[in-house]
Amino acid sequence: MLKRQRTMKRQRTGTTVFEMTVAIVLLMAAVLSATQLIGASVNARRKADRRQLARYEAANLMERVAALPWAEVTNENLQAWPLAEELQKQLPGARLQALVEEVAVGESDTSEKKPPLAALPAKKITLAISWNGPAKSHVRLMSWRYAPPPPEKPQQEDS
């Protein structure tokens, strides 16, 4: 009987080939899932970095628009602007699309509490940067620019 107990103990002490196979399969599934998750995270981060770079460039271009004289804010002038070299390196096929629309603000203010406003000349400026990649992407920034007020006429004194 002692011999039987020793024999049974020896058979149950080690791991079987089947248990090792199941453990390896589970470990491989976990590693594969983690690898896919890391890859998706890296791609999302790269896409966010590209969008941020395009936002910075659009903001820089809009600052340049703000510094221009009123008469020079036109579609032709803005379309001719080159994009930064760093942006061209990071975003393949990057291009600038500018749209300047002249509008009059204040024409339709008919509230009773306020006197009617004179029409103010304004320009609605839209800058869009688009680029090619796995998914076509773009960043758009819009701003308004108002005409400078006309110079006031000096009042003549009655003598």
Number of helices: 4
Approximate strand percentage:
15-25%
Terminus-to-terminus distance: 138 Å
* Poorly predicted regions: none
Shape: rod-shaped
Annotation, overall tally of beta strands: 3
Order of strands across the main sheet: 1-2-3
Largest sheet features: 3 strands, antiparallel
What share of the residues lie within helices? 40-55%
Give a verbal description of the structure:
- The chain is an alpha+beta fold.
- It has one domain (19-146).
- 46% of the residues lie in helices and 21% in strands.
- The chain has four helices and three strands, in the order ααααβββ.
- The protein has helices spanning 2-12, 17-67, 75-79, 85-90; strands at 95-105, 120-131, 137-146.
- A hairpin with a 5-residue loop joins β2 and β3 (137-146).
- The chain starts with a helix and ends in a 13-residue tail after the last strand.
